[in-house]
Amino acid sequence: MNLSQIELLQVLQETQLNLSKAAEKMHVVQSAVSRQLQLFEQELGSPLFERKGKKLVELTALGQQVMAEISVITQAKQNIKIMAADFLDSHQGIIHIATTHTQAKYFLPLPIQRFRKKYPAVRIYMQQASPEQLINQLHQHHADLAICTEKVTEDKGLVTLECYKWHHAVVVPQGHPLAEGEITRERLARFPILTYSFGYTGRSMIESAFQKNGIELDIILAAADTDVIKTYVRLGLGVGLIAGMAYNETSDYDLVMRDLSALIPSSSTKIAYLKHHYLPRYTQHFIEELRVAGEEILTTVN
Amino acid sequence: MNLSQIELLQVLQETQLNLSKAAEKMHVVQSAVSRQLQLFEQELGSPLFERKGKKLVELTALGQQVMAEISVITQAKQNIKIMAADFLDSHQGIIHIATTHTQAKYFLPLPIQRFRKKYPAVRIYMQQASPEQLINQLHQHHADLAICTEKVTEDKGLVTLECYKWHHAVVVPQGHPLAEGEITRERLARFPILTYSFGYTGRSMIESAFQKNGIELDIILAAADTDVIKTYVRLGLGVGLIAGMAYNETSDYDLVMRDLSALIPSSSTKIAYLKHHYLPRYTQHFIEELRVAGEEILTTVN
DNA sequence: TAAGGTTACGGCGATCGTAACGATC
DNA sequence: GATCGTTACGATCGCCGTAACCTTA
Predict the structure, then answer these.
(1) C-beta neighbour count of A205 within 10 angstroms
(2) Is A17 helix (H, G, I), strand (E, B) or coil?
(3) DSSP assignment of A23-45, as one string?
(4) Per-residue model confidence as pLDDT tens digits over A83-142
(5) Residue A260 CA, nucleotide D14 C1', distance (Å)
């Protein structure tokens, strides 16, 4: 048993058990990985893969058990490298952030700007995806941190930190009936609604708030992206149900925002990362920066 | 980075950072391990050990962090081997049990005998030690299971399962005053006491039961071993305070046992093993056997 | 001077790459 | 015939062992 065999198994999983692709990923010829896999299985005494002809099609029962340990080893090995690099220079490195559009555009700019001032040599790579995909990104080591509102607390392999709480708001064009007067769930439900797609930015909170009261919303457009929602609100398609912090007084001067904290329970945006993933110091500081910015949102809103 | 370097670090810790001893343990010459350590430190970019001259004296801060991951890898690697062996033949293998004298002599014989009937090809290695040492044995991978009454629940790295509850008893020679009449804490405390050493077989329960009531015991002999206690009771040195199941009606016919469940709260014997240690099926069955035997003790006593 | 550690060098074996072949869609 | 995997063989590079040397109790 050696580490390249371990790595091979890890890569095989990422390539749907395709030896050729795995070989390519590992920068060796295909015959090499074929042999290494044979040697490893031989050493263990049982096959790790079910084969159909020569192709690997799935993991054996043993393979599944072993694969769990493989992940542990890969993670630990990774941690050692990160620790050492962090020890050498804790002001240099990369943070891979996976987040949703709303966070990327309306929450992250300030903390990232501040962080970059303190750590100019740390690169920040940001990728957008749906919350479900974010979690995948973490598990596949394509991201170090995920920042989002939905789903992350359910995954047992993740650590989640609360970042900030916020609530939804409705935006309408100036002169729209909802721009004035008290807003109730019933009144809101009379208009066509534009809001987030399932699984995005507190959509679940919207669902539960109205369903619990037996009111059905007429959602005529669902998008992952607040800007798309605003665009169609401006076109007069209906009222926009968006995250409060996604309203910008200057650029959205033509829209009226009305707070819905009384109607929809607050949502909570979290920071998530893999439980056994060592975070270098600069990443820990980045998280601090996020939480500070989160605190500020709380205080400015109140 | 490769697995033998990982193993080297692990072994170095077990040999108090002595390269020569580590080399011997790994069956290679000393110069080989010296070079491998250098290569590894070079790869990481920082030393893992503080050196005094050429000698390694302690871990650096980085070394400590890295060492934690090393243990994880070692454990995972071990697990893979165990899993594979278990998969090949789940009726063959070795169980290393670490336990105290009391358990080894008075509890384990029955379940071990039964287990051996079902798994004749599984070797059982048993070693006796104090509860503290037992925990060390687990951490150093010298034992798979620890069976004892004290301490194991405090260690965060261990899984503990309750095995059975029992209570203390007093043994005296026939004709001794305590052989008759009601036994109270006060009455008991008037006699010289022979019981277990600190940290052994429910000794902590004895302490707390009497201290809480402001009564001091005159413990004139403390042993790790029930048989030693009985021997001196027979010589008339005092009364023996032992675990109830350590009294055997036939072989101890010359002693009188009086139950103390009313005076000393019951003790609980546990099975402990390392949290991330994979247990082969036969070991899981062995644990089952222990718990069945534990159940039986409960029912026969009541 | 014994014990622990490093450095230099030659030899051996593990693992790789090339290449030809087999199977499956 | 394109994709995927296995087998054979020669070449290379990593790692070990021998051995000489350094350093500190």
Answers:
(1) 18
(2) coil
(3) HHHTTS-HHHHHHHHHHHHHHHT
(4) 999 999 999 999 999 999 989 999 999 999 999 999 999 999 999 998 889 999 999 999
(5) 67
DSSP state of B105: I
Question: Residue B129's closest CA among B96, B103, B100, B97?
Answer: B100
Give the nucleotide with minimal C1' distance to the Cα of B32: D16
Tell me the pLDDT band of B300, cut-offs 50, 70 and 90: low
Contact residues, chain A, for B1 at CB < 8 Å: 3, 77, 80-81
B62 and B9 in contact (C-beta within 8 Å)? no
B66, B76, B80 member nearest A83 (Cβ) = B66
Q: How far, in Å, CA of B188 to CA of B115, rounded?
A: 40
A58 touches chain B (CB under 8 A): no
Quick one: pLDDT band at residue A214, thresholds 50, 70, 90? confident
Tens of pLDDT along A159-201? Answer: 999 999 999 999 999 999 999 989 999 899 999 999 999 888 8
CB neighbourhood size of B235 (10 A)? 10
Phi, psi angles (nearest 5°) of residue A197:
-65, 165
Give CA separation, A222 vs A200, A217, B17, in Å: 10, 12, 62
What is the side-by-side strand order in the sheet with B239-243? Answer: B218-223, B192-196, B239-243, B168-173, B255-259
Place of tokens 């002599």: B105
- Name beta bridge partners: B147: B99, B271
Task: Return the structure tokens found at B170.
Answer: 């007093």
Burial A186-204 (b: 16+ CB within 10 A, else e): eebeebebbbbeebbbbbb
Q: Which residues touch strand C (CB under 7 A)?
A: A 2, 4, 27-29, 31-32, 35-36, 39, 52-55; B 17-21, 30-31, 34-35, 37-38, 51, 54-56
DSSP 8-class letter at B121? T
Half-sphere exposure of A111 (CA within 13 A, CB side): 25
- Residue B268: which residues within 8 A CB-CB, separation 6 or more? B149, B162, B163, B164, B165, B166
In eight-state DSSP terms, residue A152 is: G
